[in-house]
């Protein structure tokens, strides 16, 4: 519903009083002008909720006071960051590197012999102990350890990395089973 001409006239008649009240709240002329503008915009948008016969000044002052305190509470949660130090702490690393590393790992795993791939996936990715892996593969524990070590070395060679820590960078957690297995078998 569009505000009536009487509402518009009554609203404009209160601007001086609104500015005075806004100055008493903010103690800053530019912020007071902004607060008056916000109040008038909110009042205009909510004109259908104003009850004829009641005090428009009290209604506008209530809108202004609520707007001021809402802005004040919001500003208290904000952090002053004029030099950008806080913003620099909020950076996030790009995720595509981890996805690309995973693709490279899948391709490299496919190039391993079946015995080596089975050993490193059991011990590294599944978290199976060397003893359990030896029982599953029906071979000696030393054979499993050797296969895992050779698989690790071959994966690093195929992926062109020098140290297990290079796999995934920040994207793989320190406790990632395959990463831990690759680091421990070296």
Automatic annotation (TrEMBL):
A GO biological process held by the record: DNA-templated transcription initiation
Domain RNA polymerase sigma-70 region: 17-77
Pfam family, one: Sigma70_r4_2
Keywords, ordered alphabetically: DNA-binding, Sigma factor, Transcription, Transcription regulation
Ranges where the RNA polymerase sigma factor 70 region 4 type domain occurs: 108-155
Gene Ontology terms for molecular function: DNA binding; sigma factor activity
Family designation: Belongs to the sigma-70 factor family. ECF subfamily.
Name of the protein: RNA polymerase sigma factor
